Amino acid sequence: MSLDTTPDPALQSPIPRGNFAGFKACFGKDILSGFLVFLIAMPLCLAISKASGCPPIAGIFTAVVGGMLTVFLSNSELTIKGPAAGMIAAVFGTVAAFTPEVSAGMSAEQAGMIGYRSMLAVGVIAGIIQILFGVFKLGKLAEFFPVAAVHGMLASIGIIIISKQIHVMLLGQSIKARHLHGEAFELIGRIPESLSHTNPSAAIVGVGCLVILFVRPLFKLKLVQLIPGPVWALLYGIPMSLYLKLDSTYLVSLPLNMLDGIAFPDFSNIASTTGLYWITIFALIGSLESLLSAKAIDLTDPWQRRTDLSRDVFAVGTANTLVACIGGLPMISEIVRSSANRSNGACTRWSNFWHGTFLLIMVASVPELLNQIPLPALAAMLVFTGYNLSSPKEFKKMLEIGRGQLTVFITTILATLATDLLIGVAAGIVMKIFLHMFVGKVSFTNLFRHEASIDESSGHPVVKVQKAVVFTNWLGLRRKLRSLSSHPKVTVDLSATHFVDHSVIKKLQEMAQDWQLKNRQLIIEGLQSLKPVSLHPQAARLRSKS
Predict the structure, then answer these.
(1) How far apart are CA 216 and CA 229, in angstroms?
(2) pTM surpassing 0.90?
């Protein structure tokens, strides 16, 4: 995704902030954007909850708390906090891991509730860990992971979502995989089975909604683009389901009193190996997704404001701990809704507050209307989301950066689909290290320790980097550059290196942009002496053998 990082001259002064003055100055723009984001968030919260194996109200709780609480804890001005498609695989996996086999005297609903309440306990502990990430300033966590592995993780999540939700779209209900590992491959292989047993009414609703979501961007009419895609899908899906007389088993089921949807965590199995494993998944994957989303949205901010990432993960952790205590899903800074928030003209984080407020009002006042939403329509929205995460454009983008990036990207996808998120990301990192050692000729010691010295003979610091600079030793170089904060101008000289990877080039360019906002210069020199592995401007650079 290309990012327009040029500040809008009309928006330069004064710079709005999410304080009381900003609340008054930007009230109209923020409440309008909050309302439009609410229209997108409402069906997606329900869809993500169902896909995660949780009651639909769980996602609403998350968005309400995320919107109304984090505005007071984080300084992230444009991000929207709420449940995310990227966490579906983790939440569903946790619920499934803790759900006991149905036995005599226990219904499937009771068994599912046990898994759901155990997942809430995982959410509480993971939220506390995220709070500690913030307290100990570990927002830099996002700086370590290689770009290709992160994109591979998101693409694999997209494929997992599609593999599960396409069956709901065609049948009106989910199907269960026979095997836990590699279930995405199995569920994809069972698509012909679902096609042959299609529920015509469910498919008319689900496939129709999917078509609407794909064709809407092709219409340039202002009215068509003003109304979010999920709302257009519901404007078709709800009347069509009424016409086809879909019964209640194919519709959303929200409690008429939202307080009846409150559920409390069950900590009885939290210290088990399974519990510790999923706590790790929640804390690491959730924090990583949230931090990367916040960074990406900052780059599109017209006022070029920057989020304190440690403070933001603290805010998310606090909200996650609270919402898990009442039955909510884990939240992150969600990229799609945040992008819509920025596009809709939001100025400050009060738009996040309004989005949560509108959700609260809607669910508290007219749950009967929401209970008319057909599940195949929600499944179609998730299939569309999954496609965007794993579209052919993502593969093409990685190939344009370099074949090594594509290799890491595909390795992460395949390993995740065959095992789980944690192993998948680890496999991507291992592949990246392998390529650095055998293609970039990076020594084992150099992998984890950068070689750089500071020369101030030219009147300003010049950080002369030697050997290789890659994602595994980037944090050390980053720390050295940040130690020069008192200098208005710093040069990074890479001419003596023999390999610079894509992740480092990307992060150096982002750092240079951030410094520019503070009237400082970070000059990057020496890359021209290395040969890029592709035509992409951020492609890895390798010293030619000549």
Answers:
(1) 7
(2) yes
